[in-house]
Amino acid sequence: MRFGAFLPPFHKLGQDPTANFQHDLELITRADELGFDEAWVGEHHSGGWSTIASPELFLAAAAERTRRIMLGTGVVSLPYHHPLTAADRMVQLDHQTRGRIMFGMGAGVHPSDAYMMGISAGDQRRMMAESLDAIHQLLTSTEPVTRKTDWFELREARLQLRPYTKPCFEMMAAGVGTERSMRLAGKYGINPLTFAGLAGREAPPLGKLWEAAEDEAAKNGTTVDRGKWRVAICTHVAETREEAYRQVREGAASWFRGYVKGTLGAVGDLPEGREVEHMVETRTAIIGSPQDAIEAIEHLVEQSGGLGSLLLTVQNWANRRQTMESFELFASEVAPRFTGSVQSLRDSQAWEASHRDDFSAQVREAAKAAANARV
Length: 375
Prior knowledge:
The protein is an alpha/beta fold. The protein has helices spanning about 15-35, 55-65, 85-95, 110-115, 125-140, 180-190, 205-220, 240-260, 275-280, 290-305, 320-335, 335-340, 345-355, 355-375; strands at about 1-5, 40, 70-75, 100-105, 145-150, 155, 170-175, 190-195, 230-235, 285-290, 310-315. Strands 1-2-3-4-7-8-9-11 form an eight-stranded parallel β-barrel, surrounded by eight helices. Strands 5-6 form a two-stranded antiparallel sheet. Helix 1 packs parallel to helix 11 (about 320-335) and helix 6 runs parallel beside helix 7 (about 205-220). The chain is globular.
């Protein structure tokens, strides 16, 4: 399994937004140093809690500060962009990063963003599907694309610059635990990105979602690869469960009351004072000790039937130092249980321990022989 960081990102109202850009870049840089495989950044234009309007701009800066981590848009909201310019920006970023880019696409999560652009919330998913169809053709074919919808037109359009990654960088259809995005992924044979943790709701049935992707792929003569399925969930670990809960309790409650309910007006609720416990119990967040995290991930793997990458969603419920320490602890004590990086060391230790009496006897005999030789 691979692991990554998913940064919407959210920051509590009242914090300096200029400094927060640097804090998010520092977190991605540290994730790169720790060996995380991927980092994803979202797009928002209103609401006050998230100020990254262009994930492409942000990831270009992150690419200059990192060495190997893959960088993804999580997501570009397709209804807000012309398909040709959206594809062109990603191709440019693919070249600038020398192939370290991934293109995550969605319909847009904030209805206020769509409203300001004159887009009806009821049209967003249709518009995403229309844009994805055009973008997929532009990126995977050299044939000119001509088509007209009620919101964009392409006239013999083609990309003047082809992707650096051959034949193309990864494309992802993102969704909040519904079949729609999974079926879009299946239709085009691209990869799904699923947001598994929706506070105030039950965890999505991941196994059923994957069946939808495979069903749609079969209908369209494409294939989907479970090993490239990304699942994102809010995650925070500390040395003990009690310490992890303590570190995020105030921030999680503030985020849920101030953003999820107070800003978005989302349905569902969390019991006041038990927000953290409720999210853990409903499996919409992973919060606790390293062993708690291991058991939660094992459940996710079992319930989903297997996935390729787990993305640790960063909601900044804890302070900066605690968030960094959570990533460090996860990298050292949780991830190795799933990447297989320490199994050979365990095997080596077990083998030597099983022969320790023989090896000790050989050492004693060698020491005795050496002593006799000196005499």
